[in-house]
Design brief:
The chain is of the alpha/beta class. The protein has a single domain, classed as Metallo-dependent phosphatases (Purple Acid Phosphatase, chain A, domain 2), CATH 3.60.21. 28% of the residues lie in helices and 28% in strands. The chain has nine helices and 22 strands. Strands 1, 2, 5, 6, 15, 20, 21 and 22 form an eight-stranded mixed sheet that branches. Strands 8-9-11-12-14-13 form a six-stranded mixed sheet, covered by helices on one side. The protein has a four-stranded mixed sheet with strand order 17-16-19-18, with no helix packed on it. The protein is globular. The N and C termini lie far apart (59 Å).
């Protein structure tokens, strides 16, 4: 069985104002897999109110309209993770509409739901007697993700990344399904190197029985490594995440017609606040993503990585990375395996323990 894993998917942005969005070679490549899995990093909905919390903050509101969703179906995705910091950008109504749209299109989801029970439920695929469960989690309470709406009892939201709970979830799923693959949304944006905490948690997930850990969120490709013979990719980067229009103070914006976008200033980055309509353009390094192919053969899992690139005109295709991208990714890979990095992680863990000890001592007085 061959599984295809892709990074962040946002099917709107500038794409409604052009004809093409994916190359024929990439479409053909996707069709060659048994199943396709990705992260849907956008709420789906038309004319819905923005999340009230984000409206009061930096207004980093990302969504795709109902009429844009067809691209997810057209690319053939079978499973998507909703465990991310943008699935709630249209509030509860947006999450409900996103889930309803997925169900209507026969696409399974995991990592968010109308309560914590649904959010924590794995998506499961079965073929030729082999069952595979997908568990998805979103980091929260981090300066690198902003507001994340956590699911609770009778409360919609995303499945929170609590490593103790994830550890137990994985063990439980491993008893019921042949393979368990974890899809965490975590880390710091625009970095090639994973956070030390993500490195530690990925190993804990493998120790609990996960057969692979494939992450998202940083909008950069991070290293593909192995731990105990199991693949870990800390971030697969962007897959289909085009440039997008914004209106003051910063939410994503869908102009009424192609004529309305002519002459709009293009800016690299994600400024806040803005004083005029702008087109947000991805940094060249964030235009790369990777596809992780997992070949399941008997008791082994064989990973293979191929890269994709979103062109300046926002058409994603298979690509060979340029030298700057390769140099930065290789540097990050070397850092993960070098002794100083491992020493730094140990020092950080000791510092955290000491800080907790001091806080507990202070509280007890």
């Amino acid at each position: 069985m061959n599984l295809c894993f892709c990074g962040d998917i946002m099917p709107g942005g500038v794409l409604p104002y052009q004809q093409d969005y994916i190359s024929s070679d990439l479409s053909d490549y996707l069709r060659g897999f048994d199943f396709r899995i990705g992260t849907l990093e956008a709420a789906i909905g038309t004319g819905l109110p923005y999340d009230s919390v984000k409206v009061q903050g930096r207004q980093n509101i990302i969504y795709a309209r109902d009429e844009d969703f067809f691209r997810v179906k057209e690319m053939g995705f079978d499973v998507v993770s909703l465990a991310n910091n943008h699935v709630w950008d249209l509030g509860e109504a947006g999450l409900r509409n996103t889930i309803r749209t997925l169900k209507e299109n026969g696409i399974q989801f995991c990592g968010a739901g109308l309560d914590i029970e649904e959010a924590a439920q794995p998506a499961v695929i079965v073929k030729e007697g082999l069952s595979i469960a997908f568990l998805a989690y979103c980091m929260y309470g981090s300066e690198y993700l902003g507001h994340v709406e956590i699911a609770g009892v009778r409360k919609p939201g995303v499945n929170p990344l609590d490593i103790e709970k994830a550890f137990l979830d994985i063990k439980k799923a491993k008893k019921k399904y042949d393979k368990v693959i974890v899809l965490p949304h975590w880390g710091r944006e625009y970095r090639f190197e994973p956070l030390p905490g993500c490195v530690k948690m990925a190993k804990q997930m493998i120790d609990a029985g996960a057969d692979a850990v494939l992450g998202s969120h940083p909008h950069r490709v991070q290293p593909l490594v192995e731990y105990k013979g199991r693949p870990i990719c800390y971030s697969m980067g962007n897959f289909l995440f085009p440039d997008f229009y914004m209106h003051p103070p910063r939410p994503i914006w869908y102009p009424d017609s192609v004529e309305d976008v002519k002459g709009i200033k293009r800016v690299v980055g994600y400024p806040f606040p803005i004083e005029e309509p702008l087109c947000q353009v991805w940094n060249p390094l964030s235009r790369y993503g990777c596809i992780i192919k997992l070949s399941l053969m008997d008791n082994s899992i064989v990973p293979e990585c191929r890269y994709v690139l979103s062109s300046p005109d926002n058409i994603v295709s298979l690509a060979k990375p340029d030298k700057a991208f390769e140099r930065l990714l290789n540097k990050s890979s070397r850092m993960l395996t070098c002794a100083p990095y491992r020493i730094m992680m140990r020092i950080k863990r000791k510092c955290k323990k000491e800080i907790r000890r001091i806080i507990n001592t202070f509280k007890s007085k």
